Amino acid sequence: MAGLGWRDVQATVGSGISEFYQSLHHVENSHQFNKVLDELFRGDPLVSAFGVSLLVSLVTWALGIATNKHSWVDKLWSILPVYYLWHFAVSSKVSSASQEIHPRLLLMAVLQTVWGARLTYNFARKGGYRWTEEDYRWPIVRSQVPRVLFEVFALVFIAFIQNVLLLAITAPAYVAWQRRAQAPLNWLDAVAGLLVAGFILMEGIADQQQWEFQTAKHAKIRAGKRLTGEYAKGFLTTGLFRYSRHPNFFAEQALWWSLYLFSVAASGKWINWSMAGVVGLTALFQGSTRLTEQLTAQKYPKYRDYQQTTYCLFPWWPLSPQKRGRGRPAKDDAASPGVAPPTPGTPRRRGRKPAAAPGSPDNEEADWEPSAAAAGAAPQEEEDQEEVGAPAPTAAASRRSSRRRVAAAEQGFDSEGGGGGGAGSRGSRRSARAASAGASPRRRARGE
Fold first, then answer.
1. What is the pTM of this model?
2. What is the DSSP letter of 337?
């Protein structure tokens, strides 16, 4: 080793590289290699893309068995569609050097590359590409079904159906590839391109707002500060989340419906077979959103109030509780499993949270964040007990309830204020008036 110089290393490496290129040249000239190239690029690109999808399905399924983690498809969710788009775009160019990439296919591929790069970055900063990371919902599903059934589910749905779906949502690019010689760019391509770009921007803004909110919230938790305002609720209700509980879910689905318009521009048909992929994606999002809603409502009691005033997906102006119906779920939440309204006549006790599922999210899929309770978050302030869906009280019962609340307010303020005179007495009188008006005496006495 002492006599080994840089020239010896250079000669050895150079010789190895030369032999490697010679072996590639030999393989390139072989009949088998040409056959593979023909199948991958010079044949039907949908056939080769489906072969890639099957291969990835087997690999992700095997990784799920080996690691007992089933989020391997999630790690590829923003990568595979971009590959399929470019696969369709360049297939003609690879098979024949004289052919140019069709502008429609190039536009679709560039837009989806921007989408994939942004989504990959957002997933990475949440820790999604850690080897041990797993979607918070899979452990819940595993705990509810027998192990054998879950493994069948993992093979059929998680590995196979999801991978095929990632190919199916790019099928509009295949339609554009089929019609590349007959259909030039037109006005609908411009509309589709603007819509896709707009929804990419909307999804990015929503994800960034969610990231900043969760980062600030957990910074306060780690610093031992009391959570107030928006942070006390635990979930985001400002920005785009003021108009939709899941604006990024909405933007993601709308983005793929907009991409479908490229196939309409290419084929001249408003309804064609490539719609199947985006319909499947929309159906998948409905189930995913319902489960997310269920877990969020279990973790944050005040999420029910948010459901009453804000639509689940479609962005719209917030509604007053009276318009959505106080004491019952909104129409788009009624079918959500696990978030049924309380039985009439059953009081809902405030200040006692239902048990949160492990890793349950905020109002988005924020499985990267730790449990607020485990991190030592300050408890939310107790509010008055409220009956939801109960019969209206009689006048006598209302008077008795008012007297009890006045007495409780005076006693509670005196015990907190440290005496019966001065500010304490004024606070008690204010509390009594607040109680008789139906407000929360403790909160009024504290000046909140």
1. 0.65
2. T
Local structure of 129: helix, strand or coil: coil
Give the number of other CB atoms < 10 A from CB of residue 143.
10
Convert the pLDDT of each residue in 236-257 to its tens digit. Answer: 999 999 999 999 999 999 999 9
Task: Count CB neighbours of 38 within 10 A.
Answer: 12
User: Which residue in 39, 42, 61 sits closest to 50, CA to CA?
Assistant: 39
Give CA–CA dist 209/247, Å, rounded. 11
Residues 6+ apart with CB under 8 A from 267: 175, 179, 183
Token output for 112: 């989806």
CA distance 127 to 41: 35
Instruction: Classify 387 as helix, strand or coil.
Output: strand
Residues 305-358: tens digit of each pLDDT: 999 999 999 999 998 766 655 444 444 443 333 333 443 444 444 443 333 333
Q: Which residues of the chain have pLDDT under 50?
A: 1-4, 6, 9, 13, 17, 20, 24, 27, 326-394, 397, 401, 405-448
- Contact 52/135 with Cβ under 8 angstroms? no
For 142, residues 6+ apart whose C-beta sits below 8 A from its C-beta are 150
Helix residue ranges per DSSP H, 246-381 = 247-267, 275-299, 303-309, 321-324
Closest among 94, 91, 95, 89 to 107, alpha carbons compared: 89
**Can you tell me the distance from the alpha carbon of 83 to that of 75, in angstroms, rounded to the nearest whole number?**
14
CB 350 within 8 A of CB 385: yes
> Are residues 268 and 219 in contact, defined by beta-carbon separation less than 8 angstroms?
no
Provide the pLDDT for residue 37: 55
Of 176, 201, 174, nearest to 186 by C-alpha is: 176
Contacts of 362 (CB under 8 A, 6+ apart): 210, 214, 234, 235, 236, 296, 299, 300, 369
Closest CA to 302 of 371, 209, 379, 232: 232
Task: Give whole-number Cα distances, 342 to 46, 149, 326, 346, in Å.
Answer: 51, 32, 12, 6
